[in-house]
């Protein structure tokens, strides 16, 4: 069980933990592994249920504390998609491009990651960030872009 998470090649986040002076504990490792293997944007409760199946000794409080730490370390992103539950995803990884944005269906809650036009968006955003940083003496670290509307299934069912 928990021992299997420590075997094999080290994931990219192991170096991040060492660089920040933190230990990579079994609960931290499993939470990151669950996020790495997920194709969805998981809530803390979703993460807890998946981790608890692997490592029953974990508590929901540990999951919340670990998620806060991982956000502060820049290893994961926290999103609010308007459904009243925070959602989490890895900040980078081998399975997908590191930078993407979201389309959120306001009817069914479907979340679509997209990378179309990201280069064009980033070029525009870099200019915007540069001007905002200068105007307000504000150091911008990151941004999110989320578009809200109806997915194909919901828009055709409304017709």
TrEMBL record:
Binds 1 zinc ion per subunit. It comes from the Bacteria. Fe cation binds at residues 99, 123, 143. GO terms for molecular function: DNA-binding transcription factor activity; transcription cis-regulatory region binding; zinc ion binding. One of its GO terms (biological process) is negative regulation of DNA-templated transcription. Its cofactor is Zn(2+); Mn(2+); Fe(2+). The keyword Repressor applies. InterPro entries: FUR, Fur_C, WH-like_DNA-bd_sf, WH_DNA-bd_sf. SUPFAM superfamilies: Winged helix' DNA-binding domain. The keyword Membrane does not apply. Keywords: DNA-binding, Iron, Metal-binding, Repressor, Transcription, Transcription regulation, Zinc. This is Ferric uptake regulation protein. It comes from Candidatus Infernicultor aquiphilus.
């Amino acid at each position: 069980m928990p021992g299997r998470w420590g075997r094999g090649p080290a994931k990219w986040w192991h170096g991040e933990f060492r660089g920040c002076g933190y230990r990579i504990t079994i609960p931290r490792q499993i939470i990151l592994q669950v996020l790495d293997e997920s194709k969805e944007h998981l809530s803390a409760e979703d993460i807890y249920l998946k981790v608890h199946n692997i490592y029953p000794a974990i508590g929901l409080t540990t999951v919340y504390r670990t998620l806060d730490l991982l956000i502060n370390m820049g290893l994961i992103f926290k999103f609010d998609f308007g459904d009243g539950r925070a959602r989490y995803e890895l900040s980078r990884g081998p399975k997908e491009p590191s930078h993407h944005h979201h389309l959120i269906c306001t009817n069914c809650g479907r979340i679509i990651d997209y990378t179309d036009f990201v280069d064009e968006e980033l070029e525009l955003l870099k200019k915007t960030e540069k001007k905002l940083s200068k105007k307000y003496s504000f150091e911008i670290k990151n941004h999110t872009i989320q578009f809200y509307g109806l997915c194909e299934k919901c828009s055709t069912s409304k017709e």
